[in-house]
Amino acid sequence: MSNPTAEKPAGAAAPPPKPVKPGIGEALRQILTGPDEPDEAKLIARRRRFVMASVLGFLGVNFVMFLRFFLPRALYEPKTTFTIGYPSDFGFGVDTKFQNAHRIWVVRNTEGIFVISAICTHLGCTPDWKASENKFKCPCHGSGYDPEGVNFEGPAPRPMDRAHVELDPSGEIVVDLSRLYKWPKGERSQFGDPGAILRV
């Protein structure tokens, strides 16, 4: 029966010691100095290369950032011309389904179909359609507009603009927000001009 307390034979090898990981400071020292370089000239050359690589890397990154200012930045603006459907798709009253996508309202009354640009003429906020009150109401400063977009309360100086509307060959309504019809305060209204309303 073997004795667990018996000494190991003299020829038995001891387990190898676990390697100790160098700290950050020691690792950085080894990068800069190398493995105990006896030649002082080589040590200085190694340090110079490290410093030059750091400086060139820093300058390279800054140069790329400098060039970025001269590259064109693509801005994806929403289309100003688009179709909204056929005249038969719209009943009498205010249709708000395009308010979020195109910032417009489609209105049909006894005169025809027209499109109001949903931008308050006071400071450019987007009014809300209040069906229960039969009016557009701006949440920013309280401007109020009737169903035709004509201001009647609050600080708005004039009615909201109307977008150009026409029928394409297939009979769909085409809206062009780059062509607006206005009614400046104290001037002639453009709301009756061709393109401001579809007489359907």
Concise synopsis of the structure shown:
The protein is 22% helix and 22% strand. The chain is an alpha+beta fold and 200 residues long. The strands form 2 sheets. The protein has a 6-stranded antiparallel sheet. A 4-stranded antiparallel sheet has the order 5-6-7-8, with no helix packed on it.
Write a structural description.
The protein has about 200 residues and is an alpha+beta fold. About 20% of the residues lie in helices and about 20% in strands. It has a six-stranded antiparallel β-sheet with strand order 1-10-9-4-3-2. The longest helix is centred in the first third of the chain and has 29 residues, at about 40-70. It is elongated. The model has no long low-confidence stretch (mean pLDDT about 85).
Main-sheet strand order equals 1-10-9-4-3-2
| Count of extended strands | 10
Mean pLDDT: 84
Largest sheet: 6 strands, antiparallel
| Percentage of residues in strands | 15-25%
Low-pLDDT runs of 5+ residues are none
Which secondary-structure class do the elements indicate? alpha+beta
